[in-house]
Structure formats: structure tokens, C-alpha cells
Amino acid sequence: MIYIEPSQSKLGIKINTLEVYANTKGVLQVAFRYNPSDLSKMANGMQVQHENILENQFRGNHYHYPDFAGEEFFLLKGYALLITCDVNSENFELYLLKERVSYFIPAFVAHKVINIGSKFGSKEDVEFIISKHYNHSIESLQTPFEIFHKDLEAAIDKLITKSKNEKLQSN
After folding, report:
1. Is the model's pLDDT at 37 over the cut of 70?
2. Distance between CA atoms of 30 and 36, rounded to whole angstroms?
3. Is the bond into 66 cis (omega within 30 degrees of 0)?
4. Ordered DSSP codes for 54-77
5. Cα torsion at 143, 108, 93, 59 (round to 10°)?
6. 117, 78 contact by CB (below 8 A)
7. Radius of gyration of the chain (CA)
8. Is 120 helix (H, G, I), strand (E, B) or coil?
9. Contact 114, 128 (CB under 8 A)
């Protein structure tokens, strides 16, 4: 699978655009918003954390369980690639994370976030906020999972090339 819009995801990846409210006192930005039915699914609570990824490094290579243990990523800065993979079929999807958008990864979908800034001439860290639909201090609800597919590297290269070309055309 090459880059797709999240609305086309076969793995259940969902996106939400950042809500921004500005007034004379400043700006409020809502990265994550949950309704009562979402909150009732978070049986072990919720955890929000800030993370960074150094140049050419990654975080992840795991999936969460049980059904309620999803996770959301919200990019603050940098160039990041999200790789997702169905743990049963090894079907994968790639997303270049966009700022001001949250990406929800459901349970049983393996994921990994890679700092790809060097491919765009950037040496900066990737910074993002993660919202875990459980509380890691209560219990770690994740299982290691090495994402592998014979076409994965070629798909990543193709996506990065496409993104660089689009960036050049927009300048």
C-alpha cells in the first residue's frame, strides 16, 4: 500500500483536525477531544505524554490490546512517517504526519513513527504528543511487533519522493 488518505484506511486509522479558538487573550488549541462513549471505553484510564525522536531514529514497533487500548499521535514539529500494519494480515499503510492533525491508531494495529527529517534536509527532532487510551503506569498494554513487508522500503521511498516533489511544486 502506498500513501492513502486516512478516510481510505483499511486498518481503522482515523484523523481529526486540530480545533483552534483565538480571542484577544490568546489561542486555545484542542489536540484531542473525547465524547462520553469514547471515555467509557478507556477502562484503564488515559495517559498523555510528550515525546521526541532524534534524527534517523524511531519509536514504536508494537501494537496495543485489548480493544479499548488505542493510541493517538499529534505532531508538533518535524518530519515524521507513521507506518501502520495489521498484525494478522501484514497489510500496511503509510502516513506522513501533518501538523495540527491527530492520528488515531486502534488496538491490534502495529505502528512505528520514524524521524525522516534527514530526507528533507532537516536535522531537527520530531516532537509529538501521544494520547494513550489507557494508563501505562497501571499496566502496559502493548506487545512488541516488528513491522516487515517485502514492499515496505520501496513504498517508503516512493512516498518520500512524491512528498518532496509536491513540496517543490508548491514553492
Report:
1. no
2. 17
3. yes
4. -TT-EEEEEEE-STT--EEEEEEE
5. -30
6. yes
7. 16
8. helix
9. no
Can you say how many angstroms the Cα of residue 158 is from the centroid of all Cα atoms in its chain? 19
pLDDT at residue number 2: 47
Question: What average pLDDT score do residues 90-115 get?
Answer: 91
User: Please, are residues 92 and 84 in contact by the beta-carbon 8 Å criterion?
Assistant: yes
Taking the whole predicted model, whether its pTM rises above 0.90 is answered as no
Q: Which alpha helices (H) appear in 3-98, and where do they start and end?
A: 36-41
Q: Which three cell numbers stand for residue 105?
A: 491508531
HEC string of 134-169?
CCCCCCCCEEECCCCCCCHHHHHHHHHHHHHHHHHH
Which residues contact residue 156 at a Cβ distance below 8 angstroms, ignoring those fewer than 6 apart? 81, 83, 94
**Of 125, 76, 128, 132, nearest in space to 100 by CA:** 76
Residue 5: strand, helix, or coil? coil
CATH class, domain 6-170, is: mainly beta
Q: Which residue has the higher pLDDT, 32 or 101?
A: 101
Q: How much of the chain exceeds pLDDT 70, in percent? A: 81
